[in-house]
Amino acid sequence: MERVQILVPVLCLLCAFVVFRDAKAQTALPVCTIPGVFEIVDGTCKNYYICVDDGVNLIPVVLSCASTAIFDPVRGICVPESTAICQQTTTPSPLPTTTPGPLCVRYGRFPIPNTNCKSYYLCYWNGMGYSVMNNLTCPNTLLFEPVSEKCVSPLRYSCPVIQG
């Protein structure tokens, strides 16, 4: 019993920036022209999207930071609110109107660009449709390897250098 009491707070700390988002909740997706991580200017500093190459097209995946975090557009990640200042105005810019599409079309783990191969998101079937669990991070020095969809040792996978 003692062991469970110790593990629960540790697990909750690991989940601090994980947000669940239902694929059906999206009404309009941004248009992707290049792969990467981009902020959504809506006055909240919490919403962003990643453009993921599925091998054929660039697919936008809309994500949100946890309630205690905001999106840092320079670093392309969610950071604790106490470490950053929201620079967005309260007047949101409208998202481009596009035909809504699913965030996930299959089960799997997918890399989040520009995170030094540390972060990924999970698409899973919730019984009614696909949902996204995002802002997942490989622990310690492990890196997310997209082919195996697992966190692996840096000895097994070398993170590609992104040319800017």
Automatic annotation (TrEMBL):
Give the signal peptide range: 1-25
Q: Which domain of life is it from?
A: Eukaryota
Classification via InterPro entries? Chitin-bd_dom, Chitin-bd_dom_sf
| Keyword Signal carried by entry | yes
* Keyword list, A-Z: Signal
Give start and end of each Chitin-binding type-2 domain. 29-88, 101-161
Q: Does the keyword Signal apply?
A: yes
Please give an example of a GO cellular component term from this record: extracellular region
Q: SUPFAM superfamilies from the entry? A: Invertebrate chitin-binding proteins
Q: Which GO terms describe its molecular function?
A: chitin binding
Q: What is this protein called?
A: Chitin-binding type-2 domain-containing protein
Q: Which organism is it from?
A: Ooceraea biroi (Clonal raider ant)
